[in-house]
Amino acid sequence: MEIIMAFVIGFLFMAAVYLMLSRSLLRIIIGTGLLSHGAHLLILTMGGLGGSAPPVLADGVEDFADPLPQALILTAIVISFGVTAFFLVLAYRSYQELNTDDISEMKGGDEEDE
Amino acid sequence: MKTNDVIIQFTAKIVFFIIFFFAIHIFLAGHYTPGGGFVGGLLASSAIVLLVLAFDINTVRTIIPVTYTTLTACGLIIALATASFPMLLGDPFFTHYFDYFTLPLIGKTSLHTAMLFDTGVFLVVVGVTMTIIQTIGEDE
Amino acid sequence: MNNFVLLPIIIPFFFGMVLMFGQKSLRFQRGGAMFGLILAFISAVSLLFTVKNEGVQKITFGGWPEPFGITMVSDMVSALLVTTTLLLAIFIVWYSFSSIGTAREHFYYYPAIMMIITGVNGAFTTGDIFNMFVFFEVLLMASYVLIVLGGTRAQLAGSIKYILINVISSALFVIAIAYLYAIIGTLNMADISVKIAEINQPAIITVIAVLFLMVFGLKAAIFPLYFWLPTSYAAAPPPVLALFGALLTKVGVYAIMRTYTLFFIHDTAYTHELLLWLSVFTILAGCIGALAYFDVKQIIIYNIVIAVGVILFGVAQMNETGLQGAMFYLIHDMIIKAALFMLVGIIVYKTGTTNLRKMGGLMKSSPTLGWFYLIAAFGLAGIPPLSGFVGKLLIAKGGFEAGNTWSSLFVLATSLLVLLSVIRIFIYAFWGEEKPVQPILTNAETTKLFIPTAIVIIISIAYGVGAEYLTPFMSDAGRLLADPSIYVDAVLKGE
């Protein structure tokens, strides 16, 4: 199972890097989304897969899942949700303002101001 | 172009309530089973987004006259107050209290201060999501 | 258990929330922000003295036993940094009153400042590595808001790079924590320190150490990860720039300092040697940048990079003198960077340009500003008895003790380059012929800006002259950093 997860995480990172290297801002944002998905999956895998019972205190439960990685992922998901949403708003605003979603054309924007 | 939105508008009016009550159910279920303030908040805001899709932002603003940034601030204050309250009693920050109560109609229920914290989270999520949707949707 | 530890974090947070209401009333916004910061500052000072008299203070959320709950630890290092942060925030907010513009003040400027302070203080105080990530995100989210607020074209383009680089470094941070958790199985920083000592830091931990260095290095702008800093910071308006320059990179420096003195201390031949060389290159790269530009903002921004290198050079020595010097220099740099950015802001507001070639002769119209700038410039370079001197002296002494003679001499020699880079601003902007300018603010308004700036410079002079009174605090901090067992015992064994 860990091997499959390793490939999935690796694939997510690969796709994320590919998307983030492109010039379109929207693709970059999708790339950051994939990157954080990969990171979350990595936490889950690194916390140790397995454990059949939910991590709730009960008598006779020996084989329970580690609750900590799940809590960490939940926190990280909320944070990346917030950041991605903010980033999308910013991308939309800068598209309106600069009339482009191309990162390399945006550089021209700040030279004009000087 | 005049579009005919009768079906989606009629459906939205009903589905809104279904989603919204499901959101509340998920929010309350978060006590012992999967669910909680974050998911509940997202569902509730998706219900509002459905209304925005079916009608438009200004109509929805008259239906639900809430400033969403204020809602976010309220939620954060509720969450912070719940977390800080134990400090007044001399317990560490974030200590939670719970007990079982027998309420009329519902029967024996467990009440938990974490619930108040989750209410704060619920409001924050609705507030933040709707602020974002409004910011993008406003200038058409 | 001591809830007091949390007050410098909770108070700004609470006021930030309250300030989200009533965006229309400027008096409410300004007064609320100021009142909240002063209240938090008072609590931070009393916390500082509690830590001095009674040792490390801690609290674990929800009353969980350590190391299971999230612990907040206030030791000498974090108490000093929290106090400095709040002190500077007060003056920067004061400076914002007449410079940031009412449009921004009406649009969540003060709540964002309060959130950034919450995040910075939280990151300084937390004793849990994942919680540190959360506080980093809090301060980053607030900084995203501050950097785009206003939404001019340059700001939008600069902030996209800033956000992108931080999103990537946050993802790396999560990955580094995941790896550490897989091997150590705990997130409490004191407990991590104990567990790493138990297994005697195998090679995989050293790999994680370098990963952490990359993560925090991106935030702290060390060589070769500093390239994002100049473009994105230059986009911010002066008060925001002062806040960022004084606080944000320092949080990254603090995180490196903490992890490299608490966790990864068993293979110093590799990790600290790496840190040493990176810090030397950071100083070099910063000097080149600071000397190459004719833009006042860029010169000071590159001086941030130099200071980061100097502080980390002190950390890399891994002896008490070096670490004490690093603490001295860290706080000196927070104060002096705030002062310099505020001064440069005034110069920009007076002349309407950031280009040195278009300035000149300011000495005739505003001599006081010139002399205060000169003092700040000397303080930055570390001329005795001003504030940078003690820190740099101790860092170099630590370097000699650790046997890094040549690199220590190099660090001392670069002080001259630092001096040259800031004196260039003095020569070009204050001397020479007066040039036609398009002031952004009137003279009366810049005088209002000058009062908080002058107070910060006076604080920095007092910090240098009164170093003797601070030495007990600093030596406590240095001892604590040099000997992780003090921290560990206080967290895991204390009451």
Automatic annotation (TrEMBL), chain A:
Localization (cell): Cell membrane
**What is the membrane topology listed in the Swiss-Prot or TrEMBL record?**
Multi-pass membrane protein
Annotated coiled-coil positions are none
Q: Does the keyword Metal-binding apply?
A: no
Gene3D superfamilies per record: 1.10.287.3510
Checking NCBIfam families in the record gives: PRK08600.1, PRK09094.1, PRK12660.1
Q: Which family does it belong to?
A: Belongs to the CPA3 antiporters (TC 2.A.63) subunit C family.
Its protein name is Na(+)/H(+) antiporter subunit C
Automatic annotation (TrEMBL), chain B:
Q: Name one Pfam family in it.
A: MnhB
InterPro entries on file: CPA3_antiporter_subunitB, MnhB
What domain of life does the native source organism fall in? Bacteria
Does this entry carry the keyword Transmembrane? yes
* Occurrences of domain Na+/H+ antiporter MnhB subunit-related protein (ranges): 7-131
Keywords in alphabetical order, please.
Cell membrane, Membrane, Transmembrane, Transmembrane helix
What's the protein's topology in the membrane?
A: Multi-pass membrane protein
Compartments, record wording: Cell membrane
Query: Does the keyword Membrane feature in the UniProt annotation?
Result: yes
Q: What family is this?
A: Belongs to the CPA3 antiporters (TC 2.A.63) subunit B family.
- Protein name as catalogued: Na(+)/H(+) antiporter subunit B
Q: What species does this protein belong to?
A: Metalysinibacillus jejuensis
